[in-house]
Amino acid sequence: MASKKLTSDEVNALMEGLQDSPQAISIDVSSSEEVRPFAFGEDDLSLMGDYYALRQVNERFARQARSVFLPMLRIQPRITSFAPEVKTFDEYCASIDAFMNLNISRIEELRGPVLLTIPPKFISTLTASFYGGTINSGGGNRSEFTSTEERVIELVSDGLNDALMTSWRDLMPITLVEQGREVNTQFASVVDGAELVIICSFVVQLPGAGSDTIDVVYPLQTLKPIASQLRSRVQTDASHDNISWREQMEKAILNIPLNISALLGEPVMSVGNMTRLKSGDVVPIRINDGVTVKIEDRPFFIGEIGEVAGKSAISLQKRM
What we know:
Blueprint: H1 8-20, H2 44-47, H3 52-73, E1 78-81, E2 85-88, H4 89-95, E3 99-107, E4 112-118, H5 120-130, H6 147-168, E5 176-184, E6 196-205, E7 211-219, H7 220-223, H8 227-231, H9 243-254, E8 260-263, H10 271-275, E9 291-295, E10 298-308, E11 311-319
Antiparallel strand pairs: 1-6, 2-6, 3-4, 3-5, 4-7, 6-7, 8-9, 9-10, 10-11
């Protein structure tokens, strides 16, 4: 439907109304206390860019953390990392439950803290599954952990700290030193409430048990010294320095079982003699001076038949 156009009389009436209206009042806001100057690009948040490198670290941490939970849950959990989010520490504390597992560690290289938060429901699920229960047996509302859960928390926090150090290795090697654990954010002295923190959230999904969120919280001042590295989209590949991976691969290869056989002789017999063989007959075998020793049906050594400690043995003489 076409819109109705104004007539010339209606337009003139509108113009007269505008002319008769009082002049717009100019408001001077220069003296207002709520107005303050702001220089774009000079705030702490812009130093970090889009957190590209930190998102890469989070993706690696999500993969590494699966190996921490797998022995306890006996299933492979699905862990999804979300984009980093910036809040004040007070805002973050207000967004989580008052009763949480809070693991405080120190990044030695950056001389700053990092906070790992795990919900109590997930701790109960891990504890029940670790001791033979079901994965959907989460606990209800409470205000403290049992001694058994404290032991599980210790195992999980140590494993996640190792996973976090491994995840940072491509960006820069870090060392996490545990400072303590708390169950209430009021006693978690990480930073002042007004300071900004970067929250990296990871959702752990289990079949039949819903999902839980684990947070890794970095104070902005902790990551500020490596702001240029966090903005960079080019990272060095430190996989060649992964000595542990090489050692595990070498150990796995050296433990591969191989079949070893010794060829004593190859007697020749006609078809006629073969058809006349019966139980008790003796087939003569001529053993040469050297016995061929094969590994996986491939000849490797020439040996000599003998006896050691009452058992038949072959002494390897030379390699073929």
